[in-house]
Structure formats: C-alpha cells, structure tokens
Amino acid sequence: MNSADASQLWQGGRYRFARWQASPNFGPRPAGAQIDLIVLHSISLPPGRYGGDEVQRLFSNTLDWDAHPYFQTIRGLEVSAHFYVRRDGALWQFVDCDARAWHAGASCWRGRDNCNDDSIGIELEGLEGEAFEAGQYETLQSLLPAIAQRYPIAHVAGHEHIAPGRKLDPGPGFDWHRLRRPLGWPDRVFPQAVLAR
Question: Inter-axis angle of helices 176-183 and 134-150, to 10 degrees?
C-alpha cells in the first residue's frame, strides 16, 4: 500500500475505522522510539462478563468502583490500550497510536524493557483460556496490516509473552494460527512459543 492509500486509513495516529473514545491514560513516547511491536491482550469486566461498557469506563477513568465487588480489587487503576475489539468485532480506539498507552506494565521483548514505549496495545474482549470470536479475528486481520502500513511493525506478541509469570493473556484460548495464516507474515514476527502450538 502506498502512502496515499495509508492516508485514507489514518488521521495522524487515529485509525479511521475505529470508534474513538479518548482516554486520559497516556503520555509521550520517548524520543527516538521505534513503534515496531503489537501486543495482544484480553480483558473483560468483571472477568467473564461480556457486552457492557465497563472496559470503556475503565479506560476513561469513569468506572463506578462500587458497581461490582471485583472492581474494588482494581480500584484506582489507571490503564488504557490503543484499541479494544469487542466480541462482535466492533473496534474502539482510546489512545492515538503516536502516543504511549498504558497497557503493558513491567515488560520486556526483543531485548527491550518497557514495551509501552514502542508498542501498540490491542485489548480483546475475552478471558484467558476462553475462545475468542470469529469477528475478533476478522477485525485483527484488517487492523494489523493497517497498523503495519503506518508503523514499522516487526513483532506481534501476547501480554503473556512480554510479561511472563505476571500476565497470562490472551491465553491458550487465542488461536495464533488463525490470526497468522491470513496475514501471511513471516514466522519471525511471532513468539516462538505460539509457532509450536
């Protein structure tokens, strides 16, 4: 895709086909950061419940901490992701991709710490160990190439790969081969652990 085609997909770091809801939880990327990593996560609030607006409220710091007992365990948490993919494939964006979202936490991948600095975070509505939906894979299969048209993406990993022992998402229910096959990206882009599954 040439730059003229890419400009039809993006307005700065905002993807035109995502519903925009601004999160206050972001900051500038370090000088010289090369945005070459996509990190896949899973999230549901409360865990295992789908279809509500709790994730959007968490990312926008408007979650009612008293609405569910689980929310007390994450009270005051300030997090975000660049994108959120609902079970039906609907796509939301919370942080401009040129900025640093707060999705990875303590992390390391391809010899670099602090993956928030040079990655794009995508949350999938789901739960570690549970299967994801066809619409979510379809959205990823269009979103990832679009991201790669604007940024020099060389790696795709799960939160479980960049923060092993601390995070488990998206987990064994995520079908990496189902994501990889239509993309046609080389094996070196993906974690070695998922190639053997």
Answer: 50
| Residue where the block lists tokens 């987990």 | 171
DSSP, res 126: S
Candidate list 54, 123, 125, 160, residue with the active-site label: 123
Do residues 143 and 183 make contact, with C-beta atoms less than 8 angstroms apart?
A: no
CB atoms within 10 A of CB 21: 14
Nearest Cα to Cα of residue 112 among 79, 160, 155: 155
Altogether, the residues listed in the chain come to a count of: 197
Judge whether residue 5 has pLDDT over 70. no
Alpha helices in the chain, H assignment, sequence order: 3-9, 54-59, 134-150, 159-162, 176-183, 192-195
Q: If we measure between CA atoms, which residue out of 101, 107, 125, 78 comes closest to residue 14?
A: 101
Residue 123 and residue 162 in contact, taking contact as beta carbons nearer than 8 Å: no
Is 123 marked active-site? yes
- Give me the CATH code for the 34-195 domain, please: 3.40.80.10
Q: How many angstroms separate the CA atoms of 71 and 140, rounded?
A: 28
Determine the Cα–Cα distance for residues 140 and 183; give it in Å rounded to an integer: 10
Asked whether the whole model's pTM tops 0.85, one would answer yes
CA 128/CA 183 separation, integer angstroms: 23
Residue 101 near residue 23 (C-beta atoms within 8 A): yes
Q: Does the structure show a pLDDT above 50 at 59?
A: yes
Radius of gyration of the chain (CA): 16
